[in-house]
């Protein structure tokens, strides 16, 4: 079963560029991972301190693989000093065409 997550980050004042750099570094290697169906990072136009990652994985195994990747470990050990707040929502796909 597909897993889609939306992860929201609020950068600390003055840390927008560093957080953006860390998040952008996740995109290419994540998209290359087995089971990655979607992985995009967005920065809010009306609030440049706010970022959103939207990611979809084929299944729990693919998501676990992502969480054990080297680039995830770098991100996980680096984002907190630049982040004021972070929260995650799991999304359910409601319409199938």
Automatic annotation (TrEMBL):
Q: Give the InterPro entries listed for this entry.
A: ABM_dom, AI-2_Isomerase_LsrG, Dimeric_a/b-barrel
Q: Which residues form the ABM domain?
A: 3-91
Q: Which GO terms describe its molecular function?
A: monooxygenase activity
Record keywords, A-Z:
Monooxygenase, Oxidoreductase
Q: Which Pfam families match?
A: ABM
PANTHER family the record matches: ABM DOMAIN-CONTAINING PROTEIN, QUINOL MONOOXYGENASE YGIN-RELATED
Protein name from the UniProt record: Quinol monooxygenase YgiN
